[in-house]
Design goal:
This protein has 9 helices and no strands. It is an all-alpha fold.
Length: about 210
Amino acid sequence: MNMAFVLKTFITFFTVIDPLGLVPVTLVILANNNRKQRTQIITRAVIISAFVIAAFALIGKVLIESLGIGLYAFNIAGGILLFLIALEMLFGRTPGTRETVQEEKEAIAKNDVSVFPLAIPMIAGPGTIATTILFANSAASNVFNILVVIAAIIFCLFVAWIAMEKSALIIKFIGRTGIHVFSRILGILLAALAVQFILNGVQAFLKLNGLI
């Protein structure tokens, strides 16, 4: 059992999806919905996110290769994207890869926000998609690693559902400050993992060209 891969997979997906980071946004966007509507919207958003993530896990590698992009290049690009997300988490800002202020205002005016912005880009945003493709490629044909990736995604989506469903209770219990502190801690871990992805991509490129 590769515990290092297990920990890295769960930590990365949990950090990128950032269930606690979804709490404040959920409260704002669903402020005008009753409890039953909120549950339906949140559930629908998580299910849609699961399908989007699954689709990229299955076709991501083929899509990249069909565009002539080397996996080492995607490792580097994905690492840079995750590093930018980590920086925004460290500075206590909602990652721009998730949702802009204009998009948030537009979402508040909509009745059904399950697809946009909750599912995309709040849960299954560019960071999550890049992470999915990276780990799906890392798992390769190793059955155990593939199961670990699937378990990590399911677990994180379930935690995200709970966090959004209980958003009012969470804010009351730990407050926005507690959420920001937790996000900063996760940001540090994500930054380190992002650098590792970049280094892996550089190493693969050097090996491919016979430089090491």
